[in-house]
Amino acid sequence: MRKLTYLIAMSIDGYIAGPGDEIDVYPTPEAYLGHLASEYPETLPSHGRAGLGVADAPNRLFDTVVMGRATYQPALDLGVTSPYAHLRQYVVSGGLTSPDPAVTVAADPLALVRSLKAEPEGLGIYLAGGATVAGAVYPEIDEVILKLYPIMLGRGVPMISGEFDVTAFERTDVTTFDSGHVILRYNRT
């Protein structure tokens, strides 16, 4: 069975975006960005990979991305309809019509994730966000990779928006940077 990994940027006070879905508030020093490009190249949007020297990097961990409409919107605002062209792309939305044949729109995130996880082979599934989609697929999240940024937002979009359900995860890795950034990796126990 394939694994669903929620890999997400988060402030130290637990927000993945500002109250207006701002995501440009996260500082990304060169050493940190270089680490993301080498360790998680497939999580970088296609239109930015060339500038980071990973345009043709093979997918290491994921071959599929699932994202909510709010996560997809910044690419659309740039005129990019296929932001992860190097992955199979799914956008969870009840009202969006796909503007690109490479992007599949699904209304039921839980059914989508369960069908993707049931596929007999392939790499992992990258859950790119956001909080509502993560809350909807919460029972299927196998791994969480938090890109913890050394800032506080005060308020904004929480990491997950769902029902109260205590679920244990075990920390499997920690990578720290002089800049104060930390990447934490957890697996469901």
UniProtKB/TrEMBL annotation:
GO molecular function, one term: 5-amino-6-(5-phosphoribosylamino)uracil reductase activity
SUPFAM superfamilies for this protein: Dihydrofolate reductase-like
Residue ranges of the TM segments: none
Domain Bacterial bifunctional deaminase-reductase C-terminal: 3-182
GO biological process: riboflavin biosynthetic process
InterPro entries tied to this protein: DHFR-like_dom_sf, RibDG_C, Riboflavin_Biosynth_HTPR
Pfam families: RibD_C
Protein name per Swiss-Prot or TrEMBL: Deaminase
